[in-house]
Amino acid sequence: MITRGKRSFLYGRVDVRAVLPKGQGIWPAIWMLGENIGTVGWPKCGEIDIMEMIGGQGRENTVHGTVHWDNNNSHASYGGDFSLGTGDFSEMFHVFSIVWTGTSITWYVDDVKYHEIDITPEGLSEFHDEFFVIFNVAVGGAWPGNPDGETAFPQHMIIDYIRVFQK
Question: Is the whole model's pTM more than 0.85, yes or no?
Answer without folding.
Answer: yes
